[in-house]
Design goal:
4 helices; 434 Repressor (Amino-terminal Domain); 79 residues; globular; 58% helix; mainly alpha
Amino acid sequence: MDNQHKKYPDDNLKGLYGRNVYKIRKSKPSKMNRQRLAYLAEITDKYLGFIERGERCPSMKVMIQIANALNEPIESFFR
């Protein structure tokens, strides 16, 4: 089997988490922009973009910072 085309389970979780960060951010009444969320979560805008596109898997610490910045329980990012 060609390993470079193998889909690992964490790839799906990264995508799910990232899509939900984006959806929740956009659903806020203020339609919080990425720069503002990155500032509030104490991460870079570029890193947040990677997370939202499912290209990076953030640490638990960063997930908590994002959840706190969006005032959402962390579970809501995995539904």
